[in-house]
Amino acid sequence: MARRILPGLPLTLGITLVYVAVIVLLPLGALIFKAASLGPADYWTIVSSDRAVASYRVTMLCAAAATAFNLVFGMALAWVIVRYRFPGRRIVDALVDLPFALPTAVAGIALTTLFASNGWFGGALSALGLKVAYTPLGIIVAMAFTSLPFIVRTVQPVLEELDGALEEAAQTLGASDGEIFRKVLLPQLFPALLAGLSLSFARSLGEFGAIIFIAGNQPYETEITALLAFIRLEEYDYPASAAIASVMLMAAFLMLAITNILQTRALRYTVKG
């Protein structure tokens, strides 16, 4: 009798497949089935309506802006946590995971309180002529807050494993700090950074609870796609809600496919280098 390398593999594999089918595939199948109940003309009318297109624009642009902010700030935060030792470092490291532990609705209420015109931050920003709450900027703030940990936690382990001798060798050869980062560190960080960016962007696209409190939810201006799908759901227009949600689902799948291709190429480049 052949000896199994992993005892219990059939059982654990079966449980995993059942879990994936029930938790992931079943809801997605129901969404696709409900959207497919519409004819092509009706489906296109719903997903291409002016209000729906405006919600796509608001969601995509705000998610892209929040991801760009997290790229810079998250990378810098991960770098500081890994490379520097200072009082309160462990507290800062623990606070990175706060958006994971905090209910999104609570996060939305807290952000609205802070950035409202009479809030701690909002009052000071209003004096400078900058309004955050109930504007697209408020959506960006909420998306950035809830998706920041994805970039920090994907980049941080790679930074910890980097060999400092490579940086020292480059510095010995006369490379500047910018050249060391571009030519030595960035190629090694790029796959993890790309994964963090894709997760951050996907989280921003699907965020709901933290946004609806600070956005103002004005159609054509601060209404996100998730809220529009929810509104159609409250109107008992299930096919329209599923159609709008399917657009974001396709966008997420496309983004993941592009990310996987870029990651594969980056890993090949890193291995060859």
Task: Compose a concise summary of this entry.
Helix content is 80%, strand content 0%. It is mainly α and 273 residues long.
If you had to describe this structure to a student in words, what would you say it looks like?
The structure is a single chain. The chain has 273 residues and is mainly alpha-helical. The chain contains 13 helices and no strands. Helix 1 packs across helix 13 (238-272), helix 3 (50-83) crosses helix 10 and helix 6 (104-115) packs across helix 8 (136-161).
Global shape: globular
- How many distinct beta strands? 0
Low-confidence segments, ≥5 residues, pLDDT <50?
none
Summarize the amount of helix as a percent range: over 70%
Total helical segments = 13
Structural class: mainly alpha
Largest pleated sheet: none
Mean pLDDT: 85
Query: In sequence order, what are the helices and strands, one letter per element?
Result: HHHHHHHHHHHHH
* Span of the ends, CA to CA: 44 Å
Q: Radius of gyration, Cα only, in angstroms?
A: 22 Å
| Strand portion | under 5%
Main features:
mainly alpha; 0% strand
Break the fold down into its secondary structure elements and pairings.
Layout: H1 9-36, H2 40-47, H3 50-83, H4 89-95, H5 98-101, H6 104-115, H7 120-127, H8 136-161, H9 164-172, H10 177-206, H11 209-215, H12 225-234, H13 238-272
Helix pairs in contact: 1-13, 3-8, 3-10, 6-8, 6-11, 8-10, 8-11, 9-10, 10-13, 12-13
